[in-house]
Design a protein that fits this description.
- The complex is a heterodimer of chains A (350) and B (294).
- Chain A is an all-alpha fold.
- Chain A is built from 15 helices and four strands.
- Chain A has a single domain, classed as ABC transporter involved in vitamin B12 uptake, BtuC, CATH 1.10.3470.
- Chain B is mainly alpha-helical.
- Chain B has a two-stranded antiparallel sheet with strand order 1-2.
- Chain B is globular.
- The chains are: A mainly alpha (350), B mainly alpha (294).
């Protein structure tokens, strides 16, 4: 970690601080002010996009803890998000429980389902775990579709979120709810990575046998990673349910799960910045593509084949994932670190 | 009783095709240690490519099928050369994810070119079904099983007697030693992918003769992971035994249990088997148990 010229660490606390300089603090505060005043100048459409980005970010942070820090591959993340979404949908719609109960229960139930499918991770890893989580994805969606109480294929309506008497009935109100949770999650993830738990996760990721020899309890930490990752997925699912107001399982496909992995790989695995950059990149690209580029292209070339609109998305994202893995496997976050280093040392780059 | 025979025969024959798809996975895994999650996409795009050749362009099968094989070889080479080779010696996570990216790409391409999603290949087998006891089995099922078995035999012989096949087995065993012996490892990888694509193409054509062309083909590809998990990842014989087991479980279980549980159980049984196998015997029936050292 390079520090700006003239900045020295005199105490351990200073060395560990995330915000080291006044510029850091100024930038952080500016960013937060910019973020939380967004509804004032962002239009209704972009507010919706921002909400989607916030929700996706919460889930992606969960996946980053599981995959980026602890190295446990999960290709069923959309399934766990679905668990959260349907938990809160059933609790608030069928049992008329308050939103906060639904939100927290969504996190815990998704976490426990994650634990069940995480148990094979004790004996197998890599590909086997990938398959186990793909199986989880299909089994979860099948159960939801047939459970009855979840509305099955017809879907289920979800009431608006409310705390006390305050109802989050507009995009702007939802924006504040989502962003507060997203900022808290980012902060939580950043700090988690610096604690004993985070270091244990990294040790498990880099070499689980060596970690076990060093006294890291594999059983505990792998399952803990699954629990935290799926807990955050559940929270994201609950927010998604209350934001959209209607759930059916078509929103939680395997492609969505793959896209989540794509997001954190594009952003940068195992970094705090990674999920943020990756989520914004992918979601903005999706929105720009579907609302701006595609209509233009279609207007310019009326003779396009019928599959162009539905096919171009997966093609593009597939190519992006492959290209990033081949050309920059450490993601945009790594590029940003390189840029910062270059900027700090400029014009003497040594 | 007739029902049971029916389920059994359907199960075994469909299972043979699953085994073939599993074989396509094992080929790549055995030689290069890459977990190919793009099987669903491969099966899908080859089936639709066959449709494009045979129905849209109107070639007879005897021209169309060789063209599909050539396309499969080319696609396998392209995938290995431009997506997998730059990732040699990268962590397994990258290797798995890159195949997921390819899966995305292939599905997108198929939607792009053939957006109407459901169709059928022109039948090649006479429509009269076989009568086995009281069970009635369409000829396509029997032929699918026969072709699978023949292909399996050919591949086994290839790996046992052909020089390249032996080299591929050696690569699976120890890449460094093989390179030291002067065998071009990259060409082995490339060959493995080309073979795998051809096997996937044949499996795709067989399964679409049976069930028609839909996007369910992707799920057929995914389901066949249960074959490799149950049989053991690096075992050909495991594939050919586990395939019919999965097919039987799917058909008999789906046939008899659906009235008691929920619909669509048939499609979910392979995934339940995956979870059970991973809990009980994670390396499968015939898989090599890996002992790890630091």
């Amino acid at each position: 970690m390079g520090l700006p010229c003239g900045t020295h660490n005199y105490t351990y606390a200073q060395d560990m601080a995330i915000m080291r300089t006044k510029t850091h603090w100024a930038l952080l505060i500016a960013l937060l002010v910019l973020l939380f005043t967004f509804p004032l100048y962002g239009g209704g459409y972009w507010l919706g996009v921002a909400n989607l980005i916030g929700i996706t970010l919460i889930a992606a942070i969960g996946l980053n803890i599981l995959l980026g820090y602890c190295g446990q591959l999960s290709i069923g993340h959309a399934g766990f998000i679905a668990v959260g979404a349907y938990t809160t949908a059933v609790l608030t719609n069928v049992f008329h429980l308050p939103f906060l109960v639904g939100l927290i229960a969504a996190g815990f139930i998704a976490g426990f389902i994650g634990l069940i499918f995480g148990i094979p991770s004790l004996r197998v890893k890599g590909f086997y775990l990938a398959i186990a989580t793909i199986a989880a994805q299909f089994i979860i969606i099948w159960v939801i579709n047939h459970l009855g109480i979840t509305g099955g294929f017809m879907g289920i309506a979800v009431p608006q979120a409310s705390i006390g008497g305050f109802v989050f009935d507009s995009e702007a109100k939802m924006f504040y709810l989502i962003m507060v949770i997203a900022v808290l999650c980012t902060f939580f993830a950043k700090n988690l990575a610096r604690t004993r738990i985070g270091r244990a996760f990294v040790a498990v990721r880099d070499n689980d046998l060596a970690a076990e020899v060093m006294g890291v309890n594999l059983f505990y930490y792998k399952l803990l990673a699954f629990f935290i990752g799926c807990f955050l997925a559940g929270i994201a699912g609950a927010l998604l349910a209350h934001w959209i107001g209607f759930m059916n399982t078509e929103q939680f496909t395997l492609s969505e799960s793959i896209l989540y992995i794509g997001m954190i790989i594009i952003g940068g695995l195992g970094t705090a910045l990674g999920p943020i950059v990756g989520v914004i990149f992918i979601r903005l690209l999706q929105q720009v593509l579907t609302t701006i580029v595609l209509p233009l292209v279609e207007a310019a070339f009326p003779a396009l084949p019928a599959g162009f609109t539905s096919g171009i998305n997966p093609i593009l994202f597939g190519v992006i994932i492959v290209l990033f893995l081949v050309l920059e496997p450490r993601g945009i976050a790594h590029r940003w670190t390189l840029f910062k280093a270059a900027y700090r040392l400029w014009p003497f780059s040594y | 009783m007739a029902q049971l025979t029916q389920f059994t025969i359907t199960g075994i024959t469909v299972g043979m095709v699953y085994a073939l798809i599993g074989l396509c996975f094992a080929l790549v895994w055995k030689s290069s240690g890459v977990a190919n999650l793009a099987i669903g996409g491969l099966v899908l795009i080859f089936s639709w490519f066959t449709y494009g050749m045979v129905v849209q362009i109107g070639f007879p099968y005897w021209i169309g099928l060789p063209l599909v094989i050539i396309f499969a070889l080319a696609l396998g080479w392209l995938i290995e050369r431009f997506a997998l080779r730059p990732l040699i010696a990268q962590p397994i996570l990258s290797l798995i994810t890159v195949t997921l990216g390819i899966e995305f790409l292939l599905e997108g391409l198929t939607v792009f070119i053939w957006p109407w999603m459901v169709d059928a290949l022109p039948p090649v087998f006479p429509p009269e079904p076989f009568h086995l006891g009281q069970a009635v089995v369409a000829q396509a099922y029997i032929w699918a099983a026969v072709v699978s078995l023949v292909l399996f035999g050919l591949l086994t012989a290839y790996f046992k007697y052909n020089k390249m096949g032996i080299a591929m087995r050696a690569t699976a065993d120890d890449q460094f030693a093989v390179q030291a012996c002067g065998i071009p490892v990259t060409r082995i990888f490339s060959n493995a992918w080309m073979f795998a694509c051809v096997v996937a193409a044949i499996a795709g054509i067989l399964i679409s003769w049976i069930g028609g062309l839909t996007y369910g083909l992707v799920e057929t590809g995914l389901k066949s992971f249960s074959v490799v998990i149950l049989g053991g990842l690096d075992s050909f014989i495991g594939c050919i035994i586990a395939g019919p087991i999965i097919g039987l479980a799917e058909n008999i279980g789906g046939g008899y249990l659906t009235p008691f549980i929920w619909g669509g159980l048939k499609d979910i049984i392979p995934y339940i088997i995956i979870i059970i196998v991973l809990f009980i015997k994670p390396y499968g029936l015939f898989g090599e148990v890996r002992i790890e050292r630091i």
